[in-house]
Amino acid sequence: MIKQLVIILPALFIVTLSAYAGPLITLSADDVHSPFFNAKGIRVSLTGPQASLLEVRLNEVAIQGKIWRDLHFSCHKFQVANDWIRCEDGVLKLSGSAPLPVSFDFSSRNKTLDLKITTGAGGAVADWRLSAQWGKPVWEGVLIVTNGEAARIAEFLPEAEKSLLPVPAKGNMNGTIKLRGAAGGLAGIEAHLAVDELAFSDASGLHAGENISVEVNAMATLDEGKEGNLWAWHADVNWPSGEVFWQPVYFAAQGHRFSGSGELDESTIRLRTGKLVLSNIGEMNLSGLIDRPGNTLRDFDLSADNLELSTLFSQVLKPFLVNTPVAELQAAGHAGIQWRYRNRAHEFLHVDLRDASVEDGHGRFAFRGVDASIPWQAPGNQGNQGGVEPTKAAIRIQSSQLGKIPIGQVDIPLEIDGSNLRIPRLTLPVLDGELTLENFSASRQAQGWVWQFSGGLSPISMQKLTEALGTQPMKGTLSGEIPRVSYNGSTVVVDGALLFRIFDGTIALGNLKLLDPLGPAPSLLADLDMRNLDLNLLTGTFSFGNMQGRIDAAVHGLELFNWKPVKFDANLMSSPGSYPRRISQAAVQNISSLGGSGAAAAIQRSFLGFFEQFGYSKIGWSCSLRNGICHMGGIESEPLPHGYLIVKGGGIPAITVIGYNRDVDWWELVSRLQRITQVEAKPVIQ
What we know:
It is a single chain. The protein has about 675 residues and is mostly beta strands. It is about 10% helix and about 60% strand. The protein contains 9 helices and 42 strands. The protein has a 42-stranded antiparallel beta sheet that branches. The chain is elongated, with a radius of gyration of 41 Å. About 20% of the residues are buried.
């Protein structure tokens, strides 16, 4: 932008020369074209004593495609001699800008121009000095800037840049810019600039910076041996301090650096070799090609060997995950990357991870000690008619965690074919058992990622599992078969039923759907059928009081929202068959609490208090949950005129439990299962 400001001023002086012909002159022109610049609506006047007042107005000026409007230059001490022009009290102003004091000396004999712009007062003086000389095969110009105000520079930006760039609020510039050229125009630029305490923002609030210091050393040379305007350029940029927010990325400078070389012309900008050093992240080698004038990326190459993942993820990648299910991810370790982008499409990507870890901030999952080599290439990249052979990734994870469940070392044989992923077989060590996944496949579709797999679970100790989950200790083992499980971008669906073996019985989980599984409030739909569970193992696990026998249970139409039940129809009943059926006083007490009564006191008030166990012939209980209320029932084949039968006595001594409270708040019912509740309505003990 400094170059553009410098170019405007000599152009005005050339127009001034063409206007000078006498003491009182007014010159107007609608349109002026030249290889140097184009101007519209030109008006030049010389008035005052001895033609000492010069005024130049231009409605529009265009230099190399950059446009300025409503430009006004005036000089109140304007002097002209045979071979020189002097202005000691000039003012330059654009539409919407503050006046800019200007003075200059122009010599046609020596072919020199010395121009000075000074603003401010006292210790805050900003000084711009331009010295130019021509007449040789080449012309040269040097601009020296001392304490140049960024806010004032912004006022003189071309119209297009004003609408695109954030507005500087403060900041100072110091340095030099050297220009050289010939009759054909500009042929070389060399700049050494330092910007301090720069602050900027835009109206949207999406781009802002504060206390920025930047050092720029750049040069560009026109290759006169090539057709067209082909420039060779080199730039070194050092950013030692300051903060920048460029939605969604926030960066605090800690010595970031960039160095690059390349070429540019009217149609492209090429970065032939570049190095970007991000402090606390690492070094990256860059090259690429940008198409002009739209400034769209056509080709790009990036390679890095040893990037610090924690800083790279938190500063560069994590901002793009805001408002996603994985917004609270944390990463650590080291990574290498090679990325190739050709003809506006991704062509090749290779990622290496070394001792990396990825953890979810909500504790849903964690992967630690990850070493991986993951190659990917676009379909058709090899250029043969047979297509691209799938690439194979080598991934080893030392330890993982899904929720609270630990998983041992895993080697993942991942096959990658474009946007299709496949794992033929994967074994995950889970506690003292194994989870096996078969024929896992995933692909990128219009609705997002979709995947599917099947598998099985070898026996896992329930004691170890409940210890890991931090729940009531349980005995026995858990094993099962996993049918086809699929995910369509928003919902997990299980075809068939998940089959598990526990408490010497079976559990079938069917019609399973999990909606928005990684969202803030997932939903689950399922039907649960349990058959022939051993009551002795079950009640012993939960300190429910001892019961002998077997039960069947069904929970149909189960709906969980954010893992809390909102709807289901549950039914529990004695399993058919011949087996011992006994129940302890403690179990009677807990069962009766479901109906809102306390059996312990009733038993103790009768001769039944001498017995620790009782016989029964049937057990039955049901709950239909709607709107937070559980509507309860008992043994369906044994209806009662009042209440419902929970336990039907049988044998000697026998006990029968009847409940009377049919509608109970669900969370109150859960609380009752955790304690014995003493209420007025007592069960009938027979």
